[in-house]
Amino acid sequence: MKVTMARYTGPKARINRRLGTMLYETAGASRAMDRRPQPPGMHTRGRRPSNYGAALMEKQKIKHYYGLGERQLRRYFENVGRKSGNTGELLLLMCERRLDNVVRRVGFTKTRPQARQGITHGHFRVNGVKVTKPGYMLRAGDLIEVRGRENLKNLYRGVIANSPPDGLDWVSFDSETLRATVLSLPGAVDISLPVDANSVVEFLSR
Known about the structure:
- The two termini are 25 Å apart.
- The protein is globular.
- It is an alpha+beta fold.
- It folds into three domains: 47 residues, no CATH class; 56 residues, Ribosomal protein S4/S9, N-terminal domain (Ribosomal Protein S4 Delta 41, Chain A, domain 1, Orthogonal Bundle); 88 residues, Roll (Structural Genomics Hypothetical 15.5 Kd Protein In mrcA-pckA Intergenic Region, Chain A).
- Helix content is 45%, strand content 10%.
C-alpha cells in the first residue's frame, strides 16, 4: 500500500473492492468495481470477518473516504469524545465539515483527492483568505470561493459544466460566481458515507 502522509496513492479500485464501497470516485475505479465487485484475492469469498475485522474495515472506510491519516482520525475521535451526543455520528459530522469534503460535495471537483489537490495548491479562499489545509473545519456562515484568477475559474466552470452538482441542504452553491456558503452545520441526514460509526467508536476506544 502506497501512502503519502494521509493520502493513499495506490490502486483505488482495489480499496473499493476490498471494503465493498465506492470510496474512490474516479472513472477507472468505478468501472473496475462494476466489473469485479468481489474483494480482491483468491481466498476471500465466503469469509465473514471477525467483529474486530469488521470494525477495522469500517474504520478504513472513514479514513479512505475522507482522506484521513490514523493520527488525524484519532484526534477527531478525541475531540468529539468530549462532547455530548452520539460519538460516532459526531465523528462523521466533523468529517463532513472538512473543506475538501465540502468542495467535493458542492461540485467544484469530481473526487475528494482532486479537492485536496486544489486546496493545497491555493485555489480556494474561505471568507476572503486563501486556505491551503484540506482539513480546515468549516462553520456556519463561511463563504468558500475560487480565487480570482481567470484560469482557475475556467477550470472549475468546466468541471461543473461536465458534472452538474447534486446540491446540499446545508450549503448553498452559485455555479456562476463559483461561491458556496455554509448555511448551517450538517445534521445526521447529511452524512454521505454509509458506515457503522458506532463500531469504529468501539474500536478506537480500546
